[in-house]
Amino acid sequence: MRITSATFVKSAFKETDWPSDHRPEIAFLGRSNVGKSSFINSLLGVRGLARTSSTPGRTQSLNFFLINEQFWFVDLPGYGYARAPKDVKAEWSAAATDYLIKREPLVLSVHLIDARHEPAASDLQLHAWLNHHQRPNVIVATKSDKLSNNEFTRNIARARKTLGTEDILAYSAVTGRGREAISRRILDAVKRGTAR
Ligand code: GTP
Ligand code: MG
What we know:
Layout: E1 6-12, E2 25-30, H1 36-44, E3 62-67, E4 71-75, H2 86-102, E5 106-114, H3 121-132, E6 137-142, H4 149-163, E7 168-170, H5 179-195
Parallel strand pairs: 2-4, 2-5, 5-6, 6-7
Antiparallel strand pairs: 1-3, 3-4
This protein binds guanosine-5'-triphosphate and magnesium ion (MG).
C-alpha cells in the first residue's frame, strides 16, 4: 500500500462526530492492549500516529485517521479490559456496537487477536456477532514476532478451530510480517466501497 498521507482527524465520542464524507472506513477492533494502535502505525509506517501504550485502555473513543485522502482508518477502544469501571465498559460497548452495526461506509472490520493466546470468549462473541450482522471482517493474529515459527503455526491452527474460520492472517508490528496480505485485503475492501 503506497501511503501518500495519513492524518489524525478526530476523536469521536458520539454519532454526530462521525465523518460525513462517505469515504469508505476500515475499523480495527480487538481486546485491550492486543495491538490495534500499533498495527495502524506500523502498516502506515508512521510512528506515533495512533497512540499506543503498554497500559491497556489507552484508546477510549473512536479515532478517525484519513488515509491518502481516500479512506478512513478507525481505531476503536479495546474491549475486555477487566479493570475498567462498569459505566466505562457499558459506554464502550454502546459506542462501538452502535458504530459497528449502523455504520454504512464501514467496508471491513479488522479483528485483531494475540497470536500467543487462545482466542478469548470475548473474541468468539465478537466474531459471531460480526457474522450475525453480516459485517465483512478478517481476523489478524498479531505479535507473531513473540513466537517461534512452530509455536505460531500451532497457535494459528488452534485459533482457526476455536473461531471456526480459515480466514486468519499473521501479523507483527515489529517485523512487518503480513503487511502485504492485509494491505491487499484492505485495498480490496476500499475499492468495493468506493465503487458503490
Ligand atoms: P488499547 O488502545 O488499550 O485497546 O490497546 P491497543 O490494542 O491499541 O494496543 P497498543 O497498540 O497500544 O499496543 C499494546 C502493547 O503491545 C504496546 O506495548 C505495544 O508496543 C505492544 N505491541 C503491539 N503490537 C505488537 C507486535 O506486533 N509485536 C510486539 N512484540 N509488541 C507489540
Ligand atoms: Mg489503542
